[in-house]
Design goal:
About 35% of the residues lie in helices and about 20% in strands. It contains 14 helices and 17 strands. The strands form three sheets. A six-stranded mixed β-sheet has the order 3-4-2-1-5-6. A six-stranded parallel β-sheet has the order 14-13-15-16-12-17, sandwiched between helices. A five-stranded mixed β-sheet has the order 7-9-10-11-8. Helix 12 (about 370-380) links the parallel strand 15 and strand 16. Helix 12 packs across helix 13. The protein is globular. The two termini are about 45 Å apart.
Length: about 450
């Protein structure tokens, strides 16, 4: 049976192609949604871009037919702009004033009531990324759903970049003898991805183990190429950190993604690897470090000063790690070091869009606050002989329209996990302090 989907504004601002994602069903856009989109179209950020895209798509559909009567779309569905929010009495009785959210609810409620009068009523579903709108819809007796079509794997199924296997000790012995194993020797049902890490453990319970990495073609298991020597004074404290350094220092892997909770060492390890590649080995001309300017909590507004002064509060976590790596003692020492080197550039992500970036080691911190489109824009900027590393914690998202399954970092990890040009590790153990690890687990 065909259904009627009523879309909230936040769905279209999150995914401007959402109106075409409901197959052969009827998609209804309340008129108040057009007003809200119109109010966002002048913004210079991702939300403004999406608002303008939605506006153009609706204008294109308008040329096909009258939107208030419904226009057929390519997937067999029907797209309609609805004005029917005038019967507001029921919603007003429960929720009071006529806010934009309540006007959207009224449209869904009126459709629901009209369908109940039909001999074969169609299900009416309100689609919103706003939790409270979905709660209100439930109070009104309307089915409500989150927008899920752009989500990747659930948190329990997300790619970690490593797995642990219990095998017969003879398999571990064979690896140490010949320094490789064929993937098909393990008898796995699931496919291993290029540059995925495998920890072999003795199924008989001894301490015998081995840490291996899948080759770029996905056919062999090989030893790690790097020893556990310090990298700019930083030594891997656990298996996942050693995996991360293996990827970060491998010049044959131009795209690396690292995810994990706060305190797992993502940023510090990446900065140490970048400094080694740029300052010691001279593999890259410059170390470019950027992060999105998305505040946690209430924004502090406009900041005075030149660009560097404005950026300093947003970039302070990067500077904290650099001060640790350079072992600075006094305030201002780091600025003198960075000025003297000239090969380290710290930027807000706003300033690298539209650029072509060849021969650089690029670090994108807090990448979980990027949308799919922003990640595509950034990764497609990478020029010849560059390496890009994206870091983030999908559990700590400050963007209003993203979550752990729809953010750009998670999307990139899932889309590139089978590619030989990329590698990923999810870091699990916190190394910042016992308190930080406990806070990440309990809070």
């Amino acid at each position: 049976m065909k259904k009627i989907y009523v879309l909230d504004t936040n769905v279209l601002l999150h995914d401007p192609l959402a109106m075409f994602s409901f197959e052969e069903n009827e998609v209804v856009i309340p008129s108040v949604v057009l007003e809200e989109i119109d109010s966002k179209k002048r913004l210079a950020d991702e939300i403004g871009r999406n608002a303008r895209f939605v506006s153009r798509e609706l204008d294109r559909m308008r040329e096909i037919g009258h939107l208030h009567n419904g226009v057929s779309i390519e997937n067999g569905g029907l797209l309609k702009v609805e004005l029917n929010h005038r019967r507001f009495v029921r919603v007003q009785e429960l929720f009071g004033e006529m806010t934009n959210d309540n006007r959207i609810l009224a449209v869904a409620l009126n459709y629901h009531m009209e369908e109940q009068e039909q001999q074969e009523p169609r299900p009416v579903i309100l689609v919103s990324k706003d939790v409270l709108v979905r709660v209100k819809a439930d109070v009104l007796g309307i089915t409500a759903q989150d927008y899920l079509s752009d989500r990747v794997a659930s948190p329990s199924d997300q790619y970690t970049g490593h797995l642990s296997l219990h095998v017969h000790p003879s398999v571990i012995d064979e690896f140490y003898t010949y320094r490789f194993l064929a993937v098909n020797q393990l008898g796995l049902k699931a496919k291993l991805h290029p540059h995925e890490f495998v920890i072999l453990r003795d199924e008989l319970g001894t301490s015998k183990s081995a840490l291996l990495k899948v080759s770029a073609d996905g056919l062999r298991l090989e030893p790690l190429h790097l020893s556990n020597d310090p990298v700019w004074g930083i030594t891997a404290r656990n298996a996942q950190q050693r995996m991360a350094l293996e990827l970060l220092l491998n010049d044959e892997i131009p795209l690396v993604t690292l995810s994990g909770r706060a305190g797992t060492g993502k940023t510090l390890l990446t900065l140490a690897a970048g400094l080694m590649k740029v300052e010691d080995e001279h593999k890259f001309k410059k170390l470019l470090i950027a992060r999105p300017v998305v505040p946690m909590g209430k924004d502090i507004g406009y900041l005075p000063g030149e660009k560097e002064e404005k950026l300093r509060p947003w970039m302070q976590p990067i500077y904290d790690n650099l001060e640790f790596l350079f072992d600075t003692k006094k305030s201002g020492d780091l600025d003198k070091i960075l000025m003297g080197l000239g090969s380290i550039q710290v930027e807000a992500l706003t300033y690298i869009r539209g650029r072509s970036i060849p021969g650089q080691f690029i670090i994108i911190d807090e990448a979980q606050n990027l949308s799919k489109h922003e990640v595509k824009t950034i990764v497609s900027r990478v020029g010849e002989n560059s390496k890009i590393v994206l870091l983030g914690d999908p559990e700590q998202i400050d963007h209003p329209y993203l979550d752990a399954q729809s953010n750009g970092l998670t999307y990139l990890i899932e889309q590139f996990k089978a590619e030989s040009v990329s590698g990923h590790v999810m870091l699990e153990k916190g190394e910042r302090s016992k308190l930080a690890q406990l806070a990440a687990e309990r809070l």
